[in-house]
Amino acid sequence: MAQIGAIQALAARSVSKVRVLLTAALLCLAAPPPVTAQTPVQTASVASARVMPEATRIAAARLGDHGDKTRFVLELTRDAPFTILAEATGVAVEMEAALDAALPPAKGLVRAVSVRPGVRAGHLRLVLTTTGPVRVLLAEVIPPRDGMPPRFVMDLAAGQSGSGTGGFSVLTPASASTLKPPVPKEKPKPPLPMIVIDPGHGGQDPGAIAVGGAFEKDITLAMAKELRRQLLATGRYRVALTRDRDVFIPLRDRPALARTKGADLFISLHADSITSRQVRGLSIYTLSEKASDREAEMLAQRENQSDAIVGMDLSVQSADIASILIGMSQRDTLNQSRRFASLLLKSLDPSIAVLPGPLRSAGFAVLTAPDVPAVLVEMGYLSHSQDAKLLGSDAHRKRMAGSLLRAVDGYFGR
Ligand SMILES: [Zn+2]
C-alpha cells in the first residue's frame, strides 16, 4: 500500500486538464524505500534516490502472450515505484529508471513498445500501443527472490476499462505534462433508464409507401427523433436510436443493439399499409409465438420481410420465438412489455385514432431481445389518407411523441 501512497503523493502535485481514461485495480506489492517526513509530497523514488544514488536500470524487457492476457515484464536492478498511465493508443508505465535493454517486439495485445522521456526528470515512459482497448489486470514489482532480480510485471486483458473496483488510476492524456490524483469516488448513482428507439426500415427498405408518396422509413425516423428530443428534454432518460439516418439495419441487429446498450425499454416505430383504404388507427404489438389474430400475423410477416429486400435470410422460426418467450417469462420481460403497451394505450392523446382491439401480439423479429421489454407501435395506416396526412405533420408528430413520453414516464413511475 505504500506504493499507492507514493503514487498518490506524486499525483497530488498535479494540476489540471487530465482525463481519467482507465480505472484499473492495481495490486502494488513492492516495498518501496521510506518517504521522509520532510518531503511529504515527494515520491518515494525521489526521496530514496537521495539515499541510494545509483539509478534503477532496466536490464531486460519482454512481452508474453498468455492467451487471455498479455504480460509485460521489466527486469530491474532494483525496486522502483511506477505509475500506470492511460494513453490514447494503449497504456504506459512511467518509472525513474534508465533503459539498458532492447524493447521487445509486438506480441499478444501489444502492437508496439516505444520509449520516451517521462513527465519528470530522470523518468522514462514505456508506451505499449495495443491492438484495442485494454484493462490492466495487475501491475506490481515482484521483489528479488531465488537469484532473480526485482521484476516489474503488468498483465493486460482485452476490454474496456471502467469496471475496476477499489483501485485507483493515475492517468493523463498522451501529451500531458502533469499527473492527477484519481477522481474522488462519488456515490454511484443508478444510471438513468436507457430507452432504445427503433425507427422501422431504412436505406434500401422504404417500408410502406403512403398514399401521398411518403415512405414509412422517413416517417418513423422523424418520429424517433422527435421522441428522442422529448425524452432527453426531461433529463430523466438516456436514449439511443437503432438508426439516426436513412440507412438499412438488419432486423436482428436492432434487438441486438438494444441489448448492447443495456436498454430498459425498446420501442419500434412503424406505420403500415394495407389494401383496405378504410382501415385506420394506431395499434401496439408485443411478442408472441402465435399471433393474436390474423391481421397481426400478416403484419408480422410483412415487417419481418425487411431483410429479404437486401437478400438476407431472416426467417424467424416459430421455435426460435418459443424459446425466446420462455426466457422472457423467466425474466418477466413479456409482462413488462405488455404493461408498457397498455400504459401507452392509456397515455395516447385523444386526437389519435386507434384501431379496434389495439393491443395485439405476433412473432416480430425486432421484439426478440429476451431481456428487454419491447413493443412495436404501428402508428397508423399509410394507406389511409387521413392517417398518412397526420403522420407527415409536425403537430401530430409532437402529440404522438408526447403520448409515448407519458407512457414511458408511467412505466418508470415518474
Ligand atoms: Zn414497418
Please characterize this protein's 3D structure.
This protein has two domains: about 1-160, Immunoglobulin-like (Sandwich); about 195-410, Aminopeptidase. The chain starts with a helix and ends with a helix. The protein has helices spanning about 1-10, 45-50, 215-235, 255-260, 295-305, 320-330, 335-345, 385-390, 395-410; strands spanning about 55-65, 70-75, 80-85, 90-95, 100, 110-115, 125-130, 135-140, 150-160, 195-200, 240, 265-270, 280-285, 355-360, 375-380. Helix 3 packs across helix 9 and helix 7 crosses helix 9 (about 395-410). It is of the alpha/beta class. The strands form three sheets. A six-stranded mixed β-sheet has the order 11-10-12-15-13-14, with helices on both faces. A five-stranded mixed β-sheet has the order 5-1-2-9-8, with no helix packed on it. Bound molecules: zinc ion. Zinc ion binds next to loops. Zinc ion (ZN) binds near residues 216 and 270.
